[in-house]
Amino acid sequence: MRKVCVYAGANLGDRTSYANEARELGKIFATEGIELLYGGSRLGLMAEIANQVLELGGAVTGVMPRGLFRGEVVHQGLSQLIEVDSMHERKKQLSDLADGYIALPGGVGTFDELFEIICWGQIGLHEKPIGLLNVDGYYTPVITLLEHAVKEGFMNESNLGLVVAADNAVDLYKKMKEYERPTMGNKWKQLDDQN
Question: For this UniProt entry, what's an example GO CC term (predicted)?
């Protein structure tokens, strides 16, 4: 993995552990020569990881829809800022550039990006690793929801292997490096019944 897209909150959250682990991940990126790809903001957990990578001499590319956000939100110290016309273009550009994806704690925007990239993996649009930095159990409800979807017959168990999770940056990075895409089951279970 030479370039990793990180989805993260535009706010810091209420626990210092969120920012601490974002910075730890930033240290790993800089040390390992991994370019950070992210939304381009100077605020929240997004900025925590970006600033850490930059402070340690690493590369950071931000992708920001032009005119969508106030100018003062855009990080002015990035290695590269790519402006696009829409949120859809932003997500596509980040995905096209990335060798993998990591979700830090965040809100609805982070969830949107995370679930879209899981869906894209499920239907075969990419075969890249997806990691959850499950700081203080932040993503445990999401993991439980995915397991519930399997239990209730809306998702194949193989889909759970599309995502790896760890409660700290060091362990998550190790899992991402060792990732092997699962053999995917048939998405349409009713077709299995017809054979």
Answer: cytosol
